[in-house]
Amino acid sequence: MSQYSIAVLAGDGIGPEVMQEANKVLDAVEQKFDVSFNRTAFPVGGYAIDTEGEALPSKTLLGCEQADAILFGSIGGPKWDTLPLEQRPERAALLTLRSHFDLFSNLRPARIYPGLESLSPLREDIAKSGVDVLVVRELTSGIYFGQPKGREGEGEEEFAFDTMRYSKREIRRIAVAAFEAARKRGGKVTSVDKANVLVTSRLWREVTEEVAKDYPDVTLDHIYIDNATMQIMKNPAQFDVMLCSNLFGDIVSDECAMMTGSMGLLPSASMNEDGFGLYEPAGGSAPDIAGMGIANPIAQILSAAMMLRFSMNLTDAADAIEKAVVSTLEAGVLTGELLPPEQRAEAASTSQVGDEIV
Amino acid sequence: MSQYSIAVLAGDGIGPEVMQEANKVLDAVEQKFDVSFNRTAFPVGGYAIDTEGEALPSKTLLGCEQADAILFGSIGGPKWDTLPLEQRPERAALLTLRSHFDLFSNLRPARIYPGLESLSPLREDIAKSGVDVLVVRELTSGIYFGQPKGREGEGEEEFAFDTMRYSKREIRRIAVAAFEAARKRGGKVTSVDKANVLVTSRLWREVTEEVAKDYPDVTLDHIYIDNATMQIMKNPAQFDVMLCSNLFGDIVSDECAMMTGSMGLLPSASMNEDGFGLYEPAGGSAPDIAGMGIANPIAQILSAAMMLRFSMNLTDAADAIEKAVVSTLEAGVLTGELLPPEQRAEAASTSQVGDEIV
Ligand SMILES: CC(C)[C@H](C(=O)O)[C@@H](O)C(=O)O
Ligand SMILES: CC(C)[C@H](C(=O)O)[C@@H](O)C(=O)O
Q1: Ligand 1: nearest atom to the Cα of A98
Q2: Helix B15-32 / helix B298-311 crossing angle, nearest 10 deg
Q3: Binary contact (B251, A197; C-beta < 8 A)
């Protein structure tokens, strides 16, 4: 029997309650497949600030180092928003984990599920055109981490600066990730840049063109970020894999998530070159509905499925979970935010959705 | 009688034909109001490359220097897309004009006109919620112009870099522009940044907060760029004035333009501290329909109205043009792209729309 160890970082807001459902699903996988998951919970985010004094305690980091993967809930909330930026949950925990484990490859799928088109803020004909995009975002470089960054000067001439920076190596490895993903999907990569203005984007274009030569079965297009935000609205079905730098990927993936109208369904994976990864829902900690048992656990459960697929190579188990999610949606076992207002009284609870998937 | 001189840079694609209609409207203004416009045409863009060897010939630049304002058409097209980046129409002409005249204040209004909601790619209820946004974009600094920019290193470690940079002075003057505009509109500024990651954004936030103190009648909110692209889709009616840095404004203004579904209606103004400005349609040169007499001239005509308002203080004339545009839309004198496919046979031509506005 294969064994894997998972660091479970449930975090804040709805994190703990949706994590409970993901755990149920992992229990079911253990029963159905020849595998066991050794799970250890660690504090992170605002909860860790309150209990341990910092958003990413060293025992949590150590626990992650010893695991095969990190299953992450969500962090942050108004309670910790007044802390100095560097200590806030999002930065102190999330950005640190990304860079500590070199999680450069961030996959964020966004699709509009048949039957759920009316949730999309897009016009019906666009929402029904078959939208299924995978955003592949570089996550450990670019203007997020580029040096120098700082402030200089005095009075009105005081200025602040950030550095956007990419090496060929950094671009190549994320481009490879995008082409590999496209090969298993629609065979099309659209690389997002601002090559008419940024030197970084020109290098980005050069290297993606080079990588494309190794993938004759995949087509490569380039699109400017400003045009990308327009096309996502006008005709999202034209996209298969969107390859983005860190900042542009932040923007594009959120716009794609919103376009689906169902943030509670979207998982994400952040991986390094060794297949180690952090898996988390695309949505936030939703403190306003935390503890009410009404949050949608599907994004968390699909994040667990991505973990099985990418960090453990458990393709069958991952497929099984994803199929169970689709059946659950088709069966109409839905949390309130997926229903029209007048039907919300009959909404399924967080744990009912989890049970149905199990 | 007041006299103004205008440098008319029609450019490429549909530029010349829509400019002709704007000129008709300016003729009508001369007849109705006590004013005369001394107009001189200059080559720019691809047309100037073909006829003069460069996208912004020195006589064009000189002509602009001697004018009270620049009325700009649109530039670029596939013919010039293979030129080295620095020589291409968009960069060589547009970015040079912006920085030469210090046109730091870029105003891009985006509204969904009553009756034209079905053109929007957004869901009907969202498109009908009363969308009227003004994007105020900083246009001469930030990562577009920040130094250093370049490439260094060798092999796979070769890297490229760009610098995002803002001084307090640069932030303050564009923030003031946004607050002034908000005061005359809905009284609300939403400043777009990425203050959880960028040092530049933190200074941006500080300075906008300072400026806000001088405008107790205007409210100020901050939003992250990733969330902004989501909210524009989900609930654009929440926005009045969106204050953006150069890069974020490029993205936000294009997303807002697309959200209206009628790019051919959207003007823009790019101004400096002396009231000198460049006025141009938000859409591109549309080479595919150039010369066919079917392009919508309204964006160009509304750009002329903005010119009268901001560079010449001719408020009555500007109001008159804007009113005439609304009546023309209400009267259903519409170019094809504003009509459902089955009604396009009855579409008005470029010059019919111009005549109606006159
Ligand atoms: C919290 C923030 C720093 C983060 C980012 O910008 O990467 C978030 O928006 C995300 O996309 O995961
Ligand atoms: C052509 C390009 C350099 C330009 C920009 O990015 O500013 C354009 O997209 C715009 O918004 O006017």
Answers
A1: 7
A2: 50
A3: no
